[in-house]
Design goal:
The chain has 386 residues and is α+β, with helices and mostly antiparallel strands. The chain is built from ten helices and 17 strands.
Length: 386
């Protein structure tokens, strides 16, 4: 890294990290000279040589890339945009048993032409098939007559392969490595010119998961496509935003799956907090009120024999209180006189006969007693005079 930084510090334009292949520069110069010769005959003919020269120049554009060298990642082999991610059967030429996850990438004609190794390891197989001149433009990846380049890489952790498709006119795909070579991740193993399609295949049983989705712009040799430390996903095909990837667990990644499931599990809230956060329901309120009513203390129950005995005692005391005559309260002087006079008989109460009322006015009673007291006092004076 120190040498790279030192080299960048000595560059006049450190941000300019791209260039052109030698054959591209030579082709552009040849087309430019041809245009000049044609312009001597007729000036508009100059463009017949200059425009093809520009196309050749862009077809041979290269760029310097800094590839992450972690063994847990699979990087993109080319520049482009992710078109789809789906689980399907790998081509027979890649010799991958079972289903595989296919990441389809589309590259424009002006993309850089480098094809990078997606992982570090050995090249198990690499093969290039020439196309037909009539298939000049690769409109679809499955079109007939396209030039195709397929390669398979493997190491101790994972196996990955890709299939490039491009137009059949001209040398569009050229290999720079052979089967059996050991390469570093990000190394240029082939050249692809004027864009096309790239299908990256990774066995579905591989540990990890795809971390890119349709619409993602990729940088060849730098953008990570697959992470071996994550739980595997993508069990159903989807295009664009029509569907989303669904989680899938593979048997080869049991420990990683358990860790990811534990991390994704929601935290359990205490019952008190959960009850406090729960929305108030009228049915719950009514149930709480009924429970509160039921939880009130039950009054003490008096046994039947004890209750009957208590009632009998109360009735007896009431009878005694009702039948017992209430003594009239008399003034002390009158009470003494009444006690000394044995023949005293109270006069009949005429007020009751006259009025027919059982009750007597207290003032009338006291007045009658005063009169009786005076009469008795007069009789005592007569006896004394005698």
């Amino acid at each position: 890294m120190a040498d790279r930084d030192a080299s960048l510090s000595h560059k006049t334009f450190p941000w300019f990290r791209s260039g052109f292949d030698l054959e591209g520069v030579v082709g552009f110069l040849a087309a430019w000279l041809l245009g000049i010769l044609l312009a001597m005959l007729w000036e508009p003919l100059f463009w017949l040589g200059f425009i093809p020269g520009v196309i050749i120049l862009f077809a041979t554009r290269t760029a310097e890339r800094v590839t992450p060298q972690s063994t847990d990642h699979v990087t993109s082999p080319c520049d482009g945009v992710v078109v789809s991610v789906e689980e399907t059967e790998a081509p027979e030429g890649l010799r991958m048993a079972g289903p595989a996850v296919r990441i389809r990438i589309a590259s424009s004609p002006v993309s850089t032409n480098n094809v990078h190794a997606p992982i570090a390891g050995a090249i198990d197989r690499i093969e290039c098939t020439e196309g037909e001149p009539k298939a000049f433009v690769a409109m679809k990846a499955e079109s007939e007559g396209l030039a195709r380049l397929s390669a398979v890489f493997s190491n101790d952790n994972i196996r990955a392969g890709f299939v490039f498709s491009s137009g059949g006119l001209g040398p569009r795909l050229v290999t720079k490595s052979d089967a059996g070579d050991r390469v570093a991740k990000g190394k240029t193993v082939a050249t692809r010119r004027l864009g096309g399609w790239c299908d990256v295949y990774i066995p579905a049983r591989s540990p990890g998961s795809c971390i890119v989705h349709p619409g993602r712009t990729l940088t060849g040799g730098e953008t990570i496509l697959w992470d071996l430390s994550m739980t595997s996903v993508v069990s159903k095909p989807y295009e664009g935003d029509a569907a989303q990837p669904t989680a899938k667990t593979y048997s080869d990644n049991t420990a990683t799956t358990a860790a990811a499931a534990a991390a994704a599990a929601p935290e359990v809230m205490p019952e008190q907090i959960a009850e406090a956060d729960r929305p108030v329901d009228q049915a719950d309120v009514a149930e709480g009120e009924a429970y509160a009513a039921d939880s009130q203390p039950t009054p003490e129950v008096i046994p039947a024999p004890v209750e009957a005995e208590a009632e009998a005692a109360v009735e007896a005391s009431e009878e005694d209180w009702v039948t017992e005559p209430t003594p009239e309260t008399l003034p002390p002087e009158v009470a003494e006189d009444v006690s000394e006079t044995p023949d005293f008989e109270p006069e009949a109460d005429t007020s009751s006969d006259a009025g027919g009322d059982d009750s007597e006015d207290p003032s009338t009673m006291f007045e009658r007693l005063r009169q009786q007291a005076r009469r008795l006092a007069g009789e005592d004076e007569d006896e004394g005079n005698r």
